[in-house]
Structures are given as C-alpha cells and as structure tokens.
Amino acid sequence: MSKPRYKNKKELQENMEDTPANGHLSASTCITHLILAGTSAWTLKYCNAEYPFSFASYIMLFGHSLIGAAYYGHPQPCDSVRKICKISTILVESCSVPFLTSQLLLLKNGYGNMPNLLCIPALTAAIPIVWSFFKGDSFHIMIDIIVGFNLCVLLYLAVQYDSPWAYGLFTLGVLNQYVFSQICEKYEVPRMDLIAVGLTFFCIFSINTLYDAII
Question: For residue 36, what are the CA distances in angstroms to 39, 55, 159, 193?
C-alpha cells in the first residue's frame, strides 16, 4: 500500500482547493461549477420566495457556482476572488442541509405552528460560520457536527413523509459530508470537484423532496 502524499487533511484540502495552480484540474472544476449553476438555476424555476429557506439555499448555491466557475476558470484569479470563493464554500457547506431541513419542518407542521422553533435547524448553520472567524480551520469539525444533527432531523422527516427522494437526500447528505472527503484523501481527487458534484445532486434530490412534501 502506497503512503499518502499529504501529512494531514489541512494540507490535502489546501492542495485540492487551489486547483488553478494545478493546471489541468482547473478545467474540470470550472465545468462542475457550471453544471451546478445550471442545476441550481433549474431549481429556482420551481422554487420561489414562498418557500424562503429552500429559496435562499438555491440562491446561495447559484451564487457559489458562478463564483467557483469564475475562480477556477481563470488562470490567475486575484486573491479577493479566492477569498470570496472560500467564504461561499463555507456558506453552502454550512447552510444547504440546515435550510432545507427547516423548510421541510415548516411544510410538515405549518407556518403558524411554532415557526420560531421550526427555524432552529436553519439557525444552527450560523454556528460553523461564526466558528470559522474565531477558531480557524477547526470549523470543518463544527460543520460535520451541525450537518450531522440536521441529517438526523432529515431522516426523521423522510420517515414522516415516506418519500424515496427524502431517503435519497439523506443518503446523499451523508456521502457529501462524510464519505467524499475520505475519497479525496485516499485517491487525491480534487475536493472542490466532488463538492460541486454533490451539491448538483443535492439540488435535484432536494427539489423533488420539497415537491413530495408540498403535495
């Protein structure tokens, strides 16, 4: 068995995120973000501000995809674009699942039935974002914890709705958050490529889960 090239996850992540410096990796990452842009735009066609949390999630995904495509498609992106891309990545990793979970809870229980309590999953998304400003790189651990909590709520909702799309969304969430990072580490796959691909499927599964909840 060959030894890993990278000593720790931080070194691996830095290598995988700075793909423009790695030549051929830039094109694939740009393409995956363009696909994500198309998919998230498609979801916005069927989801409007009537469903605020899911709508905000898809808006963030669409914005992140455009930023990512611009950053990874440019041979020499400026440092400010790199920082914006990093922030948008933290946002979509932190907010996508919690926002959708709150939206499903509101649809399940009604907007008039304890709406503030039902918004708690969405509010938990702020924890890793704030954590990143004070604790640096350890915010990824907090994202794992927060997303894990929301995935448990999502599994409960999948049972309540008895929706195949919801079960698939839960499985996809587990893969996105906990499995793909191991694939990146083991096979040196660009992390941002897998994030974009995972978020693309997230859009497809989540919009169908919302449709099941609405009908």
Answer: 5, 15, 28, 10
